[in-house]
Design goal:
- By secondary structure, the chain is mostly helical.
- It has one domain (2-7, 27-85).
- It is built from 3 helices and no strands.
- The protein has helices at 2-5, 16-51, 60-85.
- The longest helix has 36 residues, at 16-51.
- The protein starts with a helix and ends with a helix.
Length: 86
């Protein structure tokens, strides 16, 4: 993933619109990664809360489903940008 997010300035687009799109795609990829980390932390907190404190996070499954759909949708931009560049 680090290779996909890190782009050498010499190999990137040279026109201003391309640079803006490239930065936007990289920003969205980082946001998707952060969202996946938050999902795993929420799942961990739900497991600990359910087993130790007997208080699970209500709506955890629905939140994870929504967050995974959003993460996939915003990660498509970098996937398409990398596929076009190849």
């Amino acid at each position: 993933m680090a290779d996909a997010v890190y782009v050498d300035s010499e190999s990137g687009p040279r026109d201003p619109a391309g640079r803006v799109l490239n930065r936007t795609c990289r920003f969205l990829a980082v946001c998707a990664g952060i969202m996946l980390i938050l999902m795993s932390l929420m799942s961990f907190a739900n497991i600990v809360g359910r087993s130790v404190f007997d208080k699970p996070i209500l709506g955890d499954y629905e939140l994870e489903q929504t967050m995974s759909a959003i993460a996939i949708a915003i990660a498509i931009a970098i996937a398409i940008a990398n596929a076009v560049a190849m």
